[in-house]
């Protein structure tokens, strides 16, 4: 099939660039659930940002840690509004500039500044290790924050003898409408999505925090049926800490993230022969002899259960446990009927009188 992700449902937790990521996935056939876990709140009029800027002008930094592209652009735009852009660029031009990643590097260069070093891992920890090896005793380090304070990094630099000026350009805040995020959490816990994408570590933390008492169910799903796909190693850290296996590209780019998902998800599918047909299970669809057959959640749940024990008879009671709460045995019969109609291969699911149903593998 040309659409590598056809039949799969993928959650997108990004706020900024969510439409771009969704389009890349939809272009490959995926069904996308957009549910921002956080939003970025600019701080152009924030007192702390103005004071940090004044501190940099009063005591020009020897080192600039540029963490994000949006943060560096926002800082310079805010300085422009205060009439301080040129003086700020002047003091930063004399600093040793470290760009944490390519977006920060691009913003630095667009501002007419020159970056001297970037970490391969794009992690703050590697930046701090590099600066401490280089020597920061007696120096001033301007640290452009990315959404939240980084007390570990600040403390490490201060212990190495530096004075750190934290520059808060924006902060993370909960989404304006939390309903899509809670809906995505329900889908993850119910294993009704195949993958969830994360483009920042705070977004991963925010989703787990929003899950509340369902957090264990969400983590169990990520450890099993639902792929946690992160844009890079830094983003993956909160999930790895909780024992969640993640997929992440070698380079932290949206295109590379999508290619990783295209490689990974089809490998996780179940394929078997049933009643003379080749059957492959995808998230919300079955592929029957190469043809995609989208299915509703209840028929899909029944098919997954039958494929999990091919040839074995499953009782109505056993199948009932796969359906949403509140369903009865009549709902099982309806789901089986819809499954047969959706597959357009009626012999695949066999009724065993007074016992239940089985996947015909003979």
Automatic annotation (TrEMBL):
Alphabetic keyword roster: DNA-binding
Matches recorded under InterPro entries: 4pyrrol_syn_uPrphyn_synt_sf (IPR036108), 4pyrrol_synth_uPrphyn_synth (IPR003754), OmpR/PhoB-type_DNA-bd (IPR001867), Sig_transdc_resp-reg_C-effctor (IPR016032), UROS/Hem4 (IPR039793), WH-like_DNA-bd_sf (IPR036388)
GO molecular function: DNA binding; uroporphyrinogen-III synthase activity
SUPFAM superfamilies: C-terminal effector domain of the bipartite response regulators (SSF46894), HemD-like (SSF69618)
Protein name: Uroporphyrinogen-III synthase
Superkingdom of the organism of origin: Bacteria
Domain OmpR/PhoB-type: 269-361
Start-end of DNA-binding region: 269-361
Pfam families referenced in this protein's UniProt entry, alphabetically: HEM4 (PF02602), Trans_reg_C (PF00486)
GO biological process terms, semicolon-separated: phosphorelay signal transduction system; regulation of DNA-templated transcription; uroporphyrinogen III biosynthetic process
